[in-house]
């Protein structure tokens, strides 16, 4: 798909002038374009296309930016966390890890395709960012520097990786219709449940799904009554309110097909704006569109450290929106206050 960028840029400018408070994802949906196409349409003005040949190595270039705000989202949930890129590693250039004290990421590079440096007006200043998109033009991950003293580091990054092609053209691949997962017969269900019962670590769950050709949502249904339990769709709201009231440290996982972002810590300021339920803390923001929640589940996974309880939310397509855990490290049993909270929902 190749959008006529001159007309797209003009229509984008007109829509922003008429409705200045929309987010870029909303502008894209309204204009029948992708977010990446809207950014590319601003090349030569407020955006600079970057040339990245090795995504894993490029992520290491973000560490000198110092304190940043990172944003990862899906259709119904936005996760924003402030901190610094630390402990950046990769596995063969295909999977990346950032395991700093504040910024905690899992990155899957196979679909990373476009990168831009973007400058946007924000009140009395300019908001600078590095933004990553997949081959469909969907946003994967965004990085917003927070330290004015590091402005030269940001500009050096843009200068070194600036692409020779700064045209407004961008070709993205159309999405094919998502196929429903194949049904799982009784024999495969039994084998899957046996593997679930013998889990040693929560990280072993995804390989278990892959080996048995079971989708994550199918796992919720197959495990119901043994490892999973349906709960009301206001569970996330009640969970966050109780975690706030108990000053409990929790883990919040939000992601898309190419990135997962994790917050570990307490939550404090909870605010409702329309259909969005929000955490608005100094270093962590969460924006959850409750209208997108089709089902909510209490999930139990056995480990060598004892059972681990999670609350998982899914949309109508069976895609995961957000996961909640009690704060914990491998080798340490789950928090008892979290275990009681998760079971009470």
UniProtKB/TrEMBL annotation:
Query: Matching SUPFAM superfamilies, A to Z?
Result: Heme iron utilization protein-like
Upper classification of the organism: Bacteria, Pseudomonadati, Verrucomicrobiota, Opitutia, Puniceicoccales
Protein's name in the database: Hemin-degrading factor
A GO biological-process term: iron ion transport
Report the residue ranges that make up the Haemin-degrading HemS/ChuX domain in this protein.
33-161, 213-344
State the source organism's domain of life: Bacteria
The record's Pfam families line, in alphabetical order, gives:
HemS (PF05171)
């Amino acid at each position: 798909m190749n959008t006529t960028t001159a007309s797209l840029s003009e229509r984008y400018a007109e829509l922003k002038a008429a409705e200045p408070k929309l987010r870029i994802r909303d502008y894209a949906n309204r204009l029948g374009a992708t977010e990446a196409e809207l950014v590319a349409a601003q090349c030569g003005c407020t955006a600079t296309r970057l040339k990245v040949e090795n995504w894993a190595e490029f992520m290491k270039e973000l560490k000198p930016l110092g304190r940043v705000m990172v944003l990862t989202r899906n259709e119904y949930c936005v996760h924003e966390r402030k901190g610094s890129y630390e402990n950046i590693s990769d596995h063969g250039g295909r999977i990346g890890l950032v395991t700093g004290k504040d910024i905690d990421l899992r990155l899957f590079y196979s679909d990373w395709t476009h990168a831009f440096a973007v400058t946007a007006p924000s009140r009395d200043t300019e908001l600078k960012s590095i933004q990553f998109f997949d081959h469909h033009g969907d946003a994967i991950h965004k990085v917003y520097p927070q330290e004015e003293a590091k402005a030269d580091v940001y500009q050096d990054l843009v200068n070194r990786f600036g692409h020779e092609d700064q045209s407004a053209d961008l070709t993205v691949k159309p999405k094919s219709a998502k196929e429903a997962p194949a049904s799982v017969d009784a024999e495969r269900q039994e084998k899957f449940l046996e593997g679930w019962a013998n889990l040693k670590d929560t990280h072993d769950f995804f390989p278990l799904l892959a080996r048995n050709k079971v989708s994550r949502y199918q796992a919720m249904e197959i495990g119901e009554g043994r490892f999973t339990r349906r709960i009301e769709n206001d569970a996330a709201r009640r969970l966050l309110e109780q975690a706030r009231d108990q000053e409990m440290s929790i883990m919040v996982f939000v992601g898309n097909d190419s990135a997962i972002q994790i917050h570990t810590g307490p939550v404090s300021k909870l605010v409702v704006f329309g259909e969005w339920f929000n955490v608005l803390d100094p270093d962590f923001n969460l924006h959850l569109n409750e209208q997108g929640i089709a089902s909510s589940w209490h999930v139990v996974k056995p480990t060598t450290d004892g059972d681990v309880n999670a609350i998982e939310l899914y949309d109508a397509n069976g895609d995961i929106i957000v996961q909640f855990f009690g704060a914990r490290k491998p080798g340490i049993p789950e928090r008892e206050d979290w275990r009681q909270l998760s079971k009470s929902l």
